[in-house]
Amino acid sequence: MAQPPNSAAATKAKNPSRTAKAAAEVPIAGGSRSPNRTAASSGRPVYLVDGARTPFLRARNKPGPFTPVDLALQCGRPLLMRQPFSPDEFDIVILGCVNVIADEMNPARVGSLRLGMGAAMTAFTVQINCGSGMQSIDIAYRAIEAGRADLILAGGTEALSHAPLVLRQQAVEWFGGFATAKTPWAKATALAGLRPEMARPVVGLERGLTDPITDLNMGQTAEVIGHLFGITREAADAYALESHQRLARAQNEGFFAGEVIPTVARDGMLYDHDDGVRPDTSMDKLAKLEAVFEKPYGNVTAGNSSQVTDGACWVVLASEEAMNRHKLAPLARIVDSEWSALDPSVMGLAPTLCSTEIMKRRRLSREDIDLWELNEAFAAQVLACLAAWEDEEYCRDVLGLDGIFGRIERDRLNVDGGAISLGHPVGTSGNRLVLHLANAMRRLGLKRGIATECIGGGQGGAMLLEAA
């Protein structure tokens, strides 16, 4: 990979068709790794003993049947009911959520009370964009490891279909002026300034998915790294097709039994599966889709991007003492975690940083990792990470390796599909990645796996699991 020159601007190009080219010149190396690297842990062992999630439901241009807390309750109640201890036995409840709605401030606390966990239960919500669900696990893991807790419920929830509509700045200023007008003449003057376009709102999610530092939306950052590593449209579409095929197979084979809990809306409608999967899609159908973020020549389309989705997930983490006390059986042991950061314009490459850092710290080789869950924010982003791990210059200058990291075989990566076919409820995905990694390792009889994801704003998270 040719190293991008250092003189480039990191801001959005005035000509949209040149955005990817302009941002691709931002240097990747230099400050890309987190200076606050976590030392290898030597505390108490921490176990993932159970977990569940809702089906992931596509947003369909209107509020879905469940709010973030509704989703957390739909999988939380059955999960707690199958535990051999009462809900108030937990020490803490931690929940990731990015788009918190006004009626459910601190959804962790609202959810814990509605789950019957008791008024004395401490519960807090965490937010690190796409990594929020994994962050909840990480905080819980560190607390148990340090001996500050024994039993923690950690989750993630997101209802992207409930993202608010936001008034334009011009409208906000007009309402402010009208509200402060004192006299009838002043109010009439303000009223005369009202314009029809002020009534046209902006979807809050659209603004939330645009990085305020680089002025690039997340799809444009995928175009950037796809350009850097030569990811073609055909390769991205082929990856997306494979994601749908793998998810369809997993559903048909019953691989999600016990992991996915059916949900029932207030109108009685049953949702029992992830509804974004398109088993009948094809390369021809995907090829007909237009570029979304870099028209007309971009490679990132709706078909090879993650879906806007609603969903929730919880996991139960326990110390060895809690497992013995409640006679719990572990799914997996959480061994280590890492968070990394880099330039926001190339945020999709962050999984290579945090995952590699864990492996260096643990003296693990690529062959030691049996299974990977790498969040499919965009097909181009996943493929760029895989290409970066095979690029000698990137591995040397960015990852600090003596040689290339090497190829991650596709039969070790996202074996049951991912966010392209499943959906990406941002506050939930990190939690789902960890839970499904543990379940897939158990099903396939594998020893060690890494769950990792890129995070909007130029960060990444990774978690190392071992069979218990």
Helices and strands in order:
Blueprint: H1 19-23, E1 46-53, E2 57-58, H2 68-81, E3 92-96, H3 107-114, E4 122-126, H4 132-145, E5 151-159, E6 165-166, H5 169-180, H6 184-192, E7 202-203, H7 204-208, H8 218-228, H9 233-253, E8 263-264, E9 270-271, H10 283-287, E10 309-319, H11 320-326, E11 332-341, H12 350-361, E12 371-374, H13 379-388, H14 392-397, H15 419-422, H16 429-444, E13 448-455, E14 459-467
Parallel strand pairs: 3-4, 3-5, 12-13
Antiparallel strand pairs: 1-10, 1-11, 2-10, 5-10, 6-7, 8-9, 11-14, 13-14
Account of the protein in words:
- With 468 residues, this protein is α+β, with helices and mostly antiparallel strands.
- The protein has three domains: 16-29 and 213-254 and 289-304 and 335-463, Thiolase/Chalcone synthase (Peroxisomal Thiolase, Chain A, domain 1, 3-Layer(aba) Sandwich); 46-163 and 308-326, Peroxisomal Thiolase, Chain A, domain 1 (3-Layer(aba) Sandwich), CATH 3.40.47; 168-204, no CATH class.
- The chain has 16 helices and 14 strands.
- The strands form three sheets. Strands 1, 2, 3, 4, 5, 10, 11, 12, 13 and 14 form a ten-stranded mixed beta sheet that branches. Strands 6-7 form a two-stranded antiparallel ribbon. The protein has a two-stranded antiparallel sheet with strand order 8-9.
- Strand 3 (92-96), helix 3 and strand 4 form a beta-alpha-beta unit.
- Residues 1-38 have low confidence and may be disordered.
